[in-house]
Amino acid sequence: MIVGCGFGGLTLAKKLSKLKVEVILIDKNNYHTFQPLLYQVATGGLEAENIVHPIRKIFRKHKNVIFRMAEVISVIDSENKVQTNIGDIPYDYLVLAMGSTNNYFNFEPVRDKLFPLKSLTDALNLRSIIMQNLERSLVIENAGDQEETVNVAIIGGGPAGLEMAGAIAEMKKFVLPLDFPELDLSRMHIVLFEASRRLLSVMSENASEHAFRYLKNMGVTIKLSTLVKSYDGNRLMLEDGETFRTETVIWTAGVKAIKITGLDQENYLPNGRLRIDEYNKLKNKQNVFAIGDAAARIDDDHPGGLPMLAPVAIQQAEQLAINIRLLLAGKPLIPFAYKNKGVMATIGRKRAVADFHGWEFQGWFAWLVWMFIHIMSLIGFKNKILTFVEWSGSYFNYDKPLGIIIPPFKKSD
Ligand SMILES: Cc1cc2nc3c(=O)[nH]c(=O)nc-3n(C[C@H](O)[C@H](O)[C@H](O)COP(=O)(O)OP(=O)(O)OC[C@H]3O[C@@H](n4cnc5c(N)ncnc54)[C@H](O)[C@@H]3O)c2cc1C
Predict the structure, then answer these.
(1) Which residues, 6+ apart, have CB-to-CB distance to 266 below 8 Å?
(2) pTM over 0.90
């Protein structure tokens, strides 16, 4: 049984589908989401169906993969079964690959006023609210109130925050003047807040500096070493007493593992990730494994576990598929070793930064590499072609449609 059809769960299910085993794949959604491109859906660059893929369609030809759309609530490992919202389901071997969710830290009490970017629903809600605010701003006469309606704050200077900031800045520069000619765009401010002293702290100093310059040139205000303190739905309060008026606060500042209860306390780390050994197995369990964002193997080189990245989940899944085959054959397992192939982030439609094993490069070439990798990683030939056509078009012509307002999402009061 595999819980979660994200990068890890999907890779594992595909590999296991080639063995003589029955695979029960469970996900709360009936589709796989390509999370790195959520920001494109949120800003109208791609449609939802370009970055999600129906799970049943993926496994049409694999009769030994049984899919159930269900939310797993807890594990009853003494009885080898999981509790779900559609009833209990038994397993022989269990792999937990539920991924991660937002960590709001001190913003937990006001989480309903923020816009996270973790799921397809989040991306569509964000797109909907940005569009609604732009439409509404046209009938607001007071300059301060209008600014508050169209201003955007992005909290978190990691890859997701930068990608969002870049896409919104391009929207402001190239599309809004055409679609909203009556709007005074000097009233729209895009501000990126980062608590640490630099952007992209997971990447090199070089990448951080380039990313900073690219964003600044695109008109984004970047506030480094800036702690956000609270938010009342209209005003973002900073620790130094400053405030920023905005109705749209995009939260990309932290993630934590999705917790499924029922396992022993020693299996959980404080951030909810499951403590695994070098075989991705949970301590004191013979048949329970975990991979991807949900799992962490703590060692001297990685005191916090491996980073929450798609290649980590994919590589762990590939190794676990081999190990499950060995396990069934009664042979010794092979320990997992992560091969870090590099980290990238894109800023707008012509710039990216890349760190590949001491080879640091930026700009247009990095963006080409970024585009190629992302297109090749999408699932389905149609999605690859459609995305390539869409991006090629917008490379030469910035006039992308912003998207229509579906669903008419409302922020909580
Ligand atoms: C906006 C954004 C941008 C990112 N950009 C990059 C990037 O550029 N490069 C990179 O390497 N990584 C990036 N990441 C991180 C990457 O997406 C994750 O590390 C990766 O998705 C982890 O894979 P996973 O298989 O562990 O979990 P996920 O891919 O998150 O999949 C988990 C699955 O489990 C399902 N699930 C969750 N809870 C339950 C439950 N209780 N019951 C049943 N099903 C459940 C979910 O529906 C989901 O399908 C980004 C993430 C985000 C949010």
Answers:
(1) 275, 283, 284
(2) yes
